[in-house]
UniProtKB/TrEMBL annotation:
PANTHER family referenced in this protein's UniProt entry, alphabetically: BETA-XYLOSIDASE (PTHR42812), BETA-XYLOSIDASE-RELATED (PTHR42812:SF12)
SUPFAM superfamilies: Arabinanase/levansucrase/invertase, Concanavalin A-like lectins/glucanases
Similarity-based family: Belongs to the glycosyl hydrolase 43 family.
UniProt keyword Protein transport, yes or no: no
CDD domains noted in UniProt: GH43_XynB-like
Top-level taxon of origin: Bacteria
Organism, as annotated: Sphaerisporangium corydalis
GO MF annotations in UniProt: hydrolase activity
Positions of the Beta-xylosidase C-terminal Concanavalin A-like domain: 317-505
Pfam families per the UniProt record, alphabetical: GH43_C2, Glyco_hydro_43
The protein, known as: Glycoside hydrolase family 43 protein
This protein's UniProt keywords: Glycosidase, Hydrolase
Cytoplasm keyword on record: no
Amino acid sequence: MRFRNPILPGFYPDPSICRVGDDYYLVTSSFEWFPGVPIFHSQDLVNWRQIGHVLDRASQLPLDGVRPSGGVYAPTLRHHDGVFYMITTLVDGLMESGNFLVTATDPAGPWSDPYWLPESEGFDPSLFFDDDGRAWAHGARPARPQAYEGHMEIWLRELDLDGMKLAGEEHVLWDGAVKGAVWAEGPHIYKVDGTYHLLVSEGGTAHDHALSAARADTVTGPYTGCPRNPILTHRGLGRDHPIVGTGHADLVQTPGGEWWMVLLAMRPYGGYHYNLGRETFLTRVRWEDGWPVPGPVELTAEAPGPTSRRWAAPPACDDFESPRLGPDWNHLRTPREPYWTLTERPGHLRLRGRPESLTERVNPSLVARRQRHADFAVHTLMEFTPVGDERAGVALVQNDDHHILLVLTANGLVVTRTEGGTDRVLAQADVPPGRIWLGVEAHGQEYQMSYATEPGAWRPLGDPVDGRVLSSTTAGGFTGAYIGLYLSSEGHPTTTTADFSYFEYLPL
């Protein structure tokens, strides 16, 4: 049996995995999106279902004012003595920042409030539980002294599990494999056949991303680099290779003794553009001369074994019959007030108008989900009567300064494209009051907006929009594109609401 990569398509970067018995659990970064750190369950490494988020309460994740591509970086998930541990970094938080960990006995939650580690530095923290019962935290930080911009080192300290704080002497383990390499980060330690192995990514998270390995006889080192470093990279395959930017990996061993690796990579399309963000891939690992040897990261590969359980595919259409949003839906930064409801008008998602806008570092009235395919179609049915500067409809979001809107305004239905913070109105149509169907159909980097004022009578609105504005190549940062439902009064107080009776997402 073969499987298809990526195993998690769309913006699911920095994967970390652990196995408990016959079950696998995986988390990824979430940056400025809330809830934070989506968590998935699998029984065969190929078929995954989301079972929730690790950080799903405001007390766990204060993202207020966080810049685009700030927020939650590179979580690590581990299981020890009946407890799940997730450690990560909150970057550029205005209320809290730094490394912290949370715990749970059930990976679906609830998870604890954060245990902050103020004595730690840097980012991308990880955990290692040795077979003598000791726990160790390690992470990446600027090297001391720093020989050049981007020169990083990996630190290690013991973790006191009773006090949830770092203890004992600090050890500097490594500063990367390649001479002059930048951003040695994402470290993970493993013990295999009595030897301690350290995996580190370096070269940055774009095209030059790479994975290097080192090993030692004791957890505190000294560590010796693999003579074949980097052990994995696609930077020599060219920017037009179907999979680029491989790195930031985590190892797992199956119950049968096989080794596999989850990692991030990107699929460029429409040139060197990455609208889907950094995605989670899977590849086999074997050992030679005591070193890990990752297999080729390919779009299809031989699966780990027979499929033990296929989860039911989620429906393409969310009809908003549940009293709570499903796990696919996210908010931009931490919502401090319930601006959405699924119960005031059953069978509808109601958004409440607020002054906040997508162009600000705030929490706007937006519920959104990841774009997971290069070719897709989205449809929704909206009821909304705009007043003044109010607008509501469909938003395609990369960050505050880069997005596409298909929104109903007092001046009609409009398509706008925002790049670098500059708005352009690309198309406009007069529509009668009442219900309106909205649609987006993407084929690569061409995003065609459409609408209907009666069932099935779809009309294109303007020419296809250049979707490269939704790529990190254009916008910068570490995130992928989101698609969602949006309402803003553009700085003015309002009591207006917008009702959406369904949201359909179809891969094409």
